[in-house]
Amino acid sequence: MPSSSPGAATTTNRGAAGGSSRSRRPKLVRAGAIEPQKLDWLWKDRIPAGMLTVLAGSPGLGKSLLTAELAARVTQGRIGGGPADVLFLSAEDSIANTILPRLQAGGADLGRVGFPLVERNGFETPLLLPTDTDVLRGFVLEHEARLVVIDPLAAHLDGINSWKDQEIREALAPAHHLAAATGAAILLVAHLNKGASTDPLQRLGGSIGLPAAARSVLLLAADPDDPDGDDGASRVLAHVKSNISEQAPSLLLRIESVTLADGSTTARISEAGFSPYSGGQLLVPDRQPRGSRLAEAIAFLQVQLADGERPASEIQELALEAGITQSTLDRAKKALSVEPRKLDFDRGWGWSLPAEPETEAA
User: Rounded to whole angstroms, what are the CA distances from 296 to 101, 115, 116, 232, 303?
Assistant: First the structure.
């Protein structure tokens, strides 16, 4: 019979919780006994296999579009090796009328995409972390899933206060071990908080525990050069953290409308080159308002061409000195219907404003 003394009871409780020295078995593992493993990638230099990656951004900018595009590529074998299965844990977007059309737009093999659910109180609900980690592990192993998308992470946390560092770390620890044990890349989708910091890692949810748990962090934001701002179609994907490699260059992405075989429309996001903007630059709060750059470029051209035609190379050089990018200058040129004309072999092209229509004298 266990002792009823306070000291004995305390020892027994600590042992049950794993805190007593008698419940632990110390073990030293020598480096020479460990088999080195080559780093594997799902998406080269951005999403490592067997690890946690965070995709963050403000609501409505296309994070879920990007996860659908990545899922389509995995099922096609375009990234991550040969064609493989993808698991989606989604708590906000409708599977039937939102996620599925996006997967179709990307050409996904729909037979390789699964949506894990668990029955609670008679209802099928998405999996929760860390409660359902074993269920998720079973699905990953059974289907040899290469990618697991959890979108958004906050909606899949079971009773976890995302503002408490320790709680978020403990909630994600089983997912970390799951990724390492199976080789699956786990992509955690997160919203930015409303802070004013330009450090992307300080803007992830409520706790620094989230970016700390991830080996790679990606930030999706509106393209500062898009004259239509957040309503425009251009996005920038910046790599803001990597514990395992150099940060990859920022990508320029573009959202486009897609008409499916049944006549319905959806959207797709695709790569459109590289962007010069870093994650910190994308979060600068007092950056010049989007759209004003175009107005500034229009005013610049009107002044430069007010006295007539000038060499295009000269205008382009002056615009660069004024901080106007070539893409913004091109949009201003189009907005003003600037007329190009071949000058001669040495001077190249000339630009001029269109002639104003003559008005009849009264």
Answer: 39, 48, 51, 18, 11
Burial class (CB in 10 A: 0-12, 13-18, 19+), 103: buried
Where is pLDDT greater, at 248 or 295?
248
Give yes or no for a contact between 86 and 146, defined as CB atoms under 8 angstroms apart.
Answer: yes
**Segment 168-190, tens digit of pLDDT:** 999 999 999 999 999 999 999 99
Q: Specify the 3-state DSSP secondary structure of 220.
A: strand
The answer to whether the CB of 227 falls within 8 A of the CB of 293 is: yes
pLDDT digits (tens, 9 = 90+) for 30-65: 999 999 888 999 999 999 999 999 999 999 899 999
Q: Which residue has the tokens 């990724």?
A: 179
Q: Domains in the chain, ordered, with CATH?
A: 41-282 (3.40.50.300), 292-352 (1.10.10.10)
Other residues' Cβ atoms within 10 Å of the Cβ of residue 158: 11
Q: Distance (Å, rounded) from C-alpha 83 to C-alpha 339?
A: 50
Looking at residue 4, what is its pLDDT?
A: 43
First to last CA, the chain: 116
Q: From CA 144, how far away is CA 50, in angstroms rounded? A: 12
Under a CB-based contact definition with an 8 Å cutoff, are residues 89 and 148 in contact? yes
**DSSP tag of 354:** P
**Structure tokens, 355:** 């002639």
Confidence of residue 285 (pLDDT cuts 50, 70, 90): low
Q: Which residue has the tokens 């008409």?
A: 259
Instruction: Report the 10 Å Cβ neighbour count for 160.
Output: 20
* 326-335 vs 292-304: helix crossing angle, rounded to 10: 70
Q: Count of residues for the chain? A: 362
Paired residues of 191 in beta bridges:
57
